[in-house]
Design a protein that fits this description.
alpha+beta, 7-stranded antiparallel beta sheet, 5 helices, 30% strand
Length: 475
């Protein structure tokens, strides 16, 4: 099977029907619901716009429900332009036009997915313009664009529009990029030359802004996975799970809801987002399985990990392939790793209730390797400070070197006591044997043992004692 076919299958699994059982497991819990009437958007802070680099990327999961007046069956074509993200400015003379827009990702009135960047020229308005397919109504789609600008250059050399990870490219055509770093980035709104604001009218989730060009592999590799908030070049990450406002989980570039006749609400998302966790060699890790629902539901294990890498347990019960699907009593499962390193495996789960199961399952990846730990004061991984003498220095006026010397002296003193005890016991044994036996050979061996006692133990004892005296004099 070719890689393109495999990727196509993965994309098909990631596109979620709007009709579900009111359940969504995984990391994409909630989503922003923009009103059908428009009149609502999110303004991102000016400080974010100012630090957006010349090369940058944007991505989000979107869903157009097809409930606006004039919507065509099956597509997002309703006669209205609908903006996902834009950056533009009204000029000092009060004019605004596509040619002056920095960038705009939108759904055109016929449902076409479109990205453009203005170039300040007329009648050729666009430095870059890319159209790629038609947005289907009622299903979640991942949209992204990446802009690549060479170092020291004002204009990009090319840009890429991604639809469910599939790229469409365009080089910069003509004119100059209309950089608008003094204007905010807008989620769900754009004003063009006809004087009408182009509002987004649907769902949006998992909004990420990157301060670098994202490659096809990077977009495809992470579009269906949550990402670490400390990821390189991640400038802003809006998970859309806060319930109020738009919270940035990466660098606190929180967005502000701008409402007119409509208002933005939080509703259960339909985007499917798995996650990755880690475990060390031969360790047990409890994994909390995220999920939300409009009513109570049960978490169900659908597939299990590769047994050569690890196994799943619920309480004391090992989950085996012959008892799938496995109904969990809660939302926690234990992963027990095998005695391996540098391996990965995965399992899947879904939510279900009396109304049925959710449309798609959530995939969890587990990496089994040397896991970084927090050492205790004794340097022991995840220790409890009980494996050594852990003193905060200086301790009662003694620095670390002084404490180390004291410990050495203590150990030597203990050794001297032990040697003295051995010497006494050897002398007592010799006296007892000497008085009880007269065999010539045995007497010779006793004399040899006595000589060793005098020549070895007594000498070692004396040397240690002298060493202790020398250490004391040094102090």
């Amino acid at each position: 099977m070719s890689l393109s076919i495999v990727f196509g299958l993965l994309v098909a699994l990631s596109i979620v029907s709007a009709q579900n059982a009111g359940i969504n497991t995984g990391e994409a819990l909630y989503a922003l619901r923009f009103p059908d009437v428009g009149q609502a958007s999110v303004a991102l802070p000016q400080s974010l716009s100012e630090v957006l680099s010349p090369s940058f990327s944007f991505e989000a999961w979107v869903m157009y429900p097809g409930t606006t007046p004039g919507a065509r069956q099956g597509t997002a074509g309703d006669g209205l332009y609908k903006t996902i993200v834009s950056r533009y400015a009204v000029r000092p003379d009060g004019t605004y036009h596509n040619m002056y827009a920095d960038f705009n990702l939108q759904i055109q009135k016929g449902g076409e997915i479109n990205f453009f960047m203005g170039n300040g020229l007329s009648p050729s308005f666009y430095g870059v313009i890319i159209t790629a397919g038609t947005l289907q109504a009622g299903r979640w789609t991942h949209l992204a664009f990446s802009v690549h600008t060479p170092n020291g250059k004002a204009n990009p050399d090319y840009a890429t529009l991604f639809v469910d990870g599939a790229p469409s490219n365009s080089t910069w055509k003509t004119g100059v990029r209309q950089l608008q770093s003094s204007s905010p980035i807008n989620i769900g709104a754009y004003l063009n030359q006809d004087g009408d604001v182009k509002w987004w009218r649907g769902y949006m989730d998992e909004i990420r802004i990157w301060s670098a060009y994202r490659t096809t592999d990077e977009i495809q590799g992470y579009m269906s996975q949550s990402v670490d908030t400390n990821s390189a070049n991640l400038l802003a990450y809006y998970k859309c799970n806060s319930g109020t406002g738009l919270v940035d989980s990466a660098h606190n570039y929180d967005g502000e809801f701008v409402s007119g006749a409509g208002s933005i609400q939080y509703q259960i998302s339909g985007a499917k987002l798995g996650f990755t966790t880690g475990a060390g060699r031969s360790t047990s890790v409890d994994i909390v399985l995220p999920g939300v629902g409009t009513s109570p539901f049960t978490y169900i294990i659908e597939t299990i990990p590769d047994p050569s890498v690890g196994s799943l347990k619920s309480g004391n019960t090992v989950i085996l392939s012959n008892n799938l699907p496995f109904f969990l009593p809660g939302n926690v499962v234990t992963f027990q790793s095998a005695n391996v390193e540098g391996k990965s495996t995965s399992f899947s789960y879904y939510g279900s209730n009396s109304a049925g199961r959710e449309a798609n399952s959530t995939h969890v990846t587990v990496l089994v390797d040397r896991v970084a730990c927090k050492p205790d004061a004794c340097g022991v991984c995840n220790g409890d400070n009980s494996t050594c003498t852990c003193l905060q220095t200086p301790y009662k006026g003694y620095e670390a070197n002084d404490l180390e010397r004291i410990l050495y002296l203590y150990e030597i003193d203990q050794t001297l006591d032990l040697i003295n005890q051995v010497e006494v016991q050897v002398d007592q044994a010799l006296d007892a044997l000497d008085s009880s036996f007269t065999n010539a050979n045995l007497n010779a061996e006793l004399l040899e043992l006595g000589a060793m006692n005098e020549g070895c133990l007594h000498t070692f004892d004396a040397d240690l004692a002298q060493f202790v005296d020398d250490l004391n004099q040094m102090s």
